[in-house]
TrEMBL record:
One of its GO terms (cellular component) is extracellular space. Belongs to the menorin family. It comes from the Eukaryota. Residues 3-249 form the Menorin-like domain. This is Menorin-like domain-containing protein. Pfam families: Menorin_N (PF10223).
Length: 263
């Protein structure tokens, strides 16, 4: 089985220069943010563009981002995957026709559709993306991985917190009530996840039939209990854990770097 912690990431691939650099690099997955806005110097109705709030302009549209990645993948053996982080239900809705050509079964590069759809720790104040609509629209793209997370408020002077049984239970209810029938990964923030092993194990056990995984992410400067995080990852399994954290944290974790794991 594949050691998913060895998958490498580029972040905020939200402009042409960085997209070009990411495609030329060794990274496997390109994470990018999508908002409604305008291409630099263009007017008219807002369209899905690559930018992170509060920005509403970019030199790169979602349409061009996807076509550029697809063109690269058509002529290269090593496929680059994309993780599209939708910042509102409005932009996800307006992106449906743009995503559709790349969610057909004959297209093979990894396609992840990501949004924070539930309120999370520590008393997060960011408004989540509408969960029911996100799941309904995501179902239009059955080959895509649904990457469904929680809003978080952590880092800086907030150095303690965890995913509560209620927050995990809400996610599990959504999965069951919406009858999700595609691969899921749950993005969890490292500093919180390391304090949440029992509930995360429950979540992954209950969703195992959907080939579920967790994607551990972290912001620079987050307080992370490295020993506990390593224990969580090894308990969940390298074959069910993507690791998307700053280099210094990854180095401290010192996880096995072999591509395959024995099971």
């Amino acid at each position: 089985m594949k050691n998913l912690t060895t998958v490498t990431w580029a972040h905020a691939v939200n402009n042409k220069t960085y997209l070009e650099a990411a495609l030329a690099s060794e990274v496997a997955m390109l994470e990018a943010d999508i908002v409604l806005g305008h291409l630099t110097g263009h007017d008219g109705p807002p369209i899905p563009i690559m930018a992170h709030p509060p920005a509403t302009t970019s030199d790169l549209s979602l349409a061009e981002f996807l076509s550029t990645v697809a063109q690269y993948n058509n002529v290269n053996n090593k496929q680059k995957g994309v993780k599209l982080d939708f910042k509102s239900i409005e932009v996800f809705s307006k992106s449906q026709e743009l995503i559709a050509p790349y969610s057909k079964p004959q297209v093979t590069f990894p396609l992840w559709l990501n949004a924070d759809i539930l309120p999370g720790p520590v008393k997060a104040t960011t408004t989540p993306v509408d969960p029911i609509k996100f799941i309904e629209l995501g179902a239009n793209h059955p080959r895509a991985v649904l990457c469904m997370g929680w809003t978080t408020r952590y880092g800086g002077n907030i150095t303690e917190g965890e995913y509560t049984p209620e927050q995990i239970g809400s996610m599990l209810r959504l999965v069951n009530e919406q009858k999700i029938n595609q691969t899921i990964t749950f993005p969890v923030r490292a500093g919180l996840a390391c304090n949440s092993q029992p509930v995360l194990l429950d979540l992954l056990r209950e969703t195992a039939s959907l080939n579920s995984s967790m994607t551990v992410w972290s912001s620079e400067g987050d307080s992370v209990e490295v020993g506990r995080l390593k224990a969580l990852i090894l308990t969940v399994g390298l074959e069910r854990t993507y690791l998307d954290v700053p280099h210094d944290l990854a180095a401290k974790l010192n996880l096995p770097s072999t591509d395959k794991v024995k099971h």
